[in-house]
Amino acid sequence: MAKGKKTGGRQKGTPNKENPLKGYLRAHSLAYFEARVQTDPITGGAREIQRQRLVYDSETGNVCKVIDLIPLTDYKSGQPLTISDFEADMIALSPNERVNAELRLLEFHTPKMKAVEVDMDMRATTVTIEDRLRELCGEDDEEDDD
Questions:
Q1: What are phi and psi of 107, to 5 degrees?
Q2: CB–CB of 6/14 below 8 Å?
Q3: Which of 8, 22, 92, 132 has a CB 3.0–4.6 Å from the CB of 49, allowing a cystine?
Q4: Nearest by Cα to 72 from 51, 54, 52, 53
């Protein structure tokens, strides 16, 4: 192996080889987060999303699942909203599920703190400056007493 000189491998500035699967996944992921008009492909009207919730029926004492249809339309004009599919999916989640999803996504954007262990050795005796200087000079306390 030559010292200080590159003798093999790729030349400087050569780009990495493109992986078709990674390219497809990247494009699919980007499309999921891009804003688009939310229309239903079958009817051509505004898209509706379903949100499930549990409701307690006081008459029977049972808990029932209710599915609400939420139209993705502008309240004033009635036109379909222009939002990303990600935002539409977040609307479909219950508030509790939405918070959990946001917290899990934040894990990718915030650094994780590591635990730091500190091992400290404390001496119970107090040392004065004179004692420390004597120790550094190599003198003993007994020599001073004579």
A1: -60, -25
A2: no
A3: 92
A4: 51
- Pick from 53, 54, 49: which is nearest to 72 by CA? 49
pLDDT more than 70, % of the chain? 90
Token pair, residue 119, equals 């091992």
Beta carbons of 50 and 76 less than 8 angstroms apart: no
pLDDT band at 103 (very low <50, low <70, confident <90, very high): very high
In eight-state DSSP terms, residue 64 is E
DSSP bridge pairs for 48: 71
The CA-to-CA distance between both ends of the chain, in Å, stands at 69
Q: Judge whether 47 and 88 are in contact, CB under 8 Å.
A: yes
Residue with tokens 């309240």: 75
